[in-house]
Amino acid sequence: MANYPEIPKFFRFNSKDMKDIYEMIERWGSTLINELRLRDIEVDSTPTTNIYTVVTISSVKRPRKGDIVYAVSSGKYKGYVSTAASTTWKNFY
Q1: pLDDT at position 1 over 70
Q2: CA atoms of 70 and 53, how far apart (whole Å)
Q3: pLDDT tens by residue, 30-57
Q4: Domain that holds residue 31
Q5: Are residues 42 and 70 located together in one domain of the fold?
């Protein structure tokens, strides 16, 4: 998980306006950091790769980059590769 910076604590202000502005920025920053941490937890808790056992690779309706299948019909493991040039299943060697 990422380590997000926090706003430094200042205790002396020359005016109430400066103190109010600082507190507003501090609340905004804390809220932003909290949202980022929650998103990190959500992203970290989802699997990056799905592994399927299928008869043919056409059985996988919406493959995503990084998905893996074991195609029973060919007896091979294949990985779904998405590049600028192509998006296809590639055999593992």
Answers
A1: no
A2: 5
A3: 999 999 999 999 888 877 677 777 777 7
A4: 11-46
A5: no
Return the residue matching tokens 């590639």. Answer: 90
Phi-psi category of 66—alpha, beta or left, where left has phi over 0 and alpha has psi -120 to 50? left
Instruction: Specify whether the CB–CB gap between 63 and 82 falls below 8 A.
Output: no
Domain count for the chain, please give it.
Answer: 2
Q: Three-state SS for 40?
A: helix
